[in-house]
Structure formats: C-alpha cells, structure tokens
Amino acid sequence: MLLSSGGLLPRYEPAGEKTISPRRKGVKQGALLMLIGAILVPIFGVMSGFAPGRLENVFAFFTAISAIICFLGGPLRMLFAALFEEGAPKPQFGPPTAYGSPAITPPAARLSALPTATANPTTGWRTRSDTAEIIQPPSVTDHTTRLLEKQDGESDAE
Length: 158
What we know:
Distance between the termini: 75 Å
Number of strands: 0
Shape: elongated
Strand content: under 5%
Mean pLDDT: 77
Order of helices and strands: HHHH
Low-confidence stretches: none
Number of helices: 4
Structural class: mainly alpha
C-alpha cells in the first residue's frame, strides 16, 4: 500500500457506519429486479398453463408484464446507475499530521561513509589457475562449417 501511494500513509476514516454508494445501490437493485423476474416469469407461465378459462388470460397478462418490467427494467436500472449516479468517494492519500520529515545528514558524514582501507594485505593469495590450457574449447561454428565442407565436396564428386 505504501508503494502504490508513493510512500504516503493513507488517511483512515473512523470505523463507523459505512454507507453504500448510490451507484452500487442502483446496480444491486437492477440485479435484484432481474433475479425476481427469473423467478416470477416461470411461475406465472406455469400458472397460466394450468389455469382454467379467464384465469389463463390473467396469468398470461401478469407473465408478460413481469417479464417486461423485470427483464427490461433491471438492465435499464443498472445502466442508469452506472452512468448517472454518484460512485463511492476515492480514498485520499496524504501525509499524516504527526509525520516529520527525516533529518538531512551533514555533507561531512556522507563523505566518510565508506570504511577505511583494510589493514590485512591481500598479496599472499595465489593466482587463479587457468584450466583451459590443455585443450582449447571448440568454436561454436566448427561443427556447422564441417557440414558445409562435406556438402561442397559431395556436389563436386557427382
């Protein structure tokens, strides 16, 4: 969190009642309306299939009205909330009030920050041995060059 805010500590609001933003509330209402429609429309459809006479028309009417309100009204409510209603406030980051800037070290202290030369000499160490002096490592292209030479020799013999 400190890295994302540039090293500044966030200001925390008191842990009181958190209110939901109007935008989120509207999106939830639209989703709930669609869920209610997914439950009501099949119920009214089944009831209209089993209802005798006039009740069949009444249940068919309620099926159509609930489908229109829920499946058209739900996404429209979500769209309206997403476009026009106010979202949650952005968290504000700032320097805390009790924070003091660090003291700047004087230039003399900066110059003597490196340690002094070592008292133990390093001349008594033996040199590193060269292990590649017996056989020279082959070149990376040697194998490819040999293949090309064989192909040129074979084409001359034919």
